Amino acid sequence: MNLGAPEIILILVALVLLFGAKKLPDLARGVGRSLRIFKAETSKMNHDDDDDKPTVVQAQPAPPAPPQEIHAAPPVTPVAEPSAEEQARRLEEQAARLRAGAPSDKRA
User: Fold this and answer.
1) Measured between alpha carbons, how far apart are the two ends of the chain, in Å?
2) What is the gyration radius of the CA atoms in the chain, in angstroms?
3) Where is this region: Disordered (predicted)?
4) Contact between residue 88 and residue 30 where contact means Cβ atoms under 8 Å apart
């Protein structure tokens, strides 16, 4: 996708209208922090994958086990992880409280 000057200006005008000129620096700062964290985590994952060395394990025959009854496990309800936007919003709220000197709210 090739963005020209008119498209970029239109996007900037829309951002100013949506968020206001005073909130744009905070928004940009939050996006920058999120990208830095994301890049650091992905580089850690790639680095961890490089450190894994294959190990050779020789299989030994196991004695036959007696038959056992198999019971179905109760279904596990998945726990929804907060989205990156939600995490960024919470961090920004905590930073604003710290700047204002308000006591921290420990909800999560």
Assistant:
1) 39
2) 25
3) 41-108
4) yes
